[in-house]
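Long-time lurker. I teach an intro course on protein structure, and each term I like to show students one example going from raw sequence to a predicted 3D structure in token notation. This year I'd like something fresh instead of my usual example. Would anyone be willing to generate the tokens for the chain below so I can use it in lecture? Attribution to the forum is fine with me.
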Amino acid sequence: MIFLIYLLVGILGLIIGSFLNVVVLRLHTKKISKGRSKCATCAHTLNTFDLIPVFSFVFLLGRCRYCKSKISFQYPLVEFITAITFITILYRCLIISGGLLTSTILYFFYFAIIFSLLIALCVYDLRHYILPWQLMKPFLFISFLGSIFLAFLNNNLSLTIFITGFVVALPFYLIWFFSKGRLIGFGDIMLMCGIGFILGIASGFLAIMFSFWIGVILILLKVVFERKFLKRDTQIPFGPFLVMGLYIVFVFNVTFYKLMLLII
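-- Reply from a regular --
Happy to contribute to a lecture. Here you go:
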């Protein structure tokens, strides 16, 4: 039974991932409409068979069925990542809720929305080097209200809940302010604020610490494999690193105490 539930959640993740691809594309092109999806090259309207998440890409060998142009690998990758994210979120929510059905549904619904927005933000940041306000605004709003609701649900509501995001983001806001935005983007500051609301102060800082570690490792790997040193004006999208840090801390329930035990 539990396997079937995970399977259904994974399928839901594939569908949502397909939708997120459309959101990112139409948000950038400013063509937010209810029209059916079309090939980006030949503009042919795609039918149902062309839009099955991941499977259509595999069956069509990564090419448009009509003009044979290559389909961006972004589409199946985002769909697959969203599916895995949903499955692991469910796993974590079952632990947090103690297996209680109602609590599990509430937790999953909240975090599924949060991470769907974050995945869309990551993709947009990777493609266009900006975290769009159209996605950031609902992320901040939902993360703030959700943190209050979950605290109330767990009889843990306090004044601290209302300021956690601001406390986590404050040091980096000061870096942004005094560097006049040269060292960090304001969109990243807002993302850190949401991370603080979701995880709390200690875990929020831990997630950001992981983000910097991940960023350094991936940038060094990029330099090594591409044999190109970063230039002074090189743009690096930091949003995806922040989301990865949040994901690791949330799903694997990493704390400073557990980290210290692992290091020692």
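Some talking points for your students: The mean pLDDT is 89. Residues 2-29 form the longest helix (28 residues).
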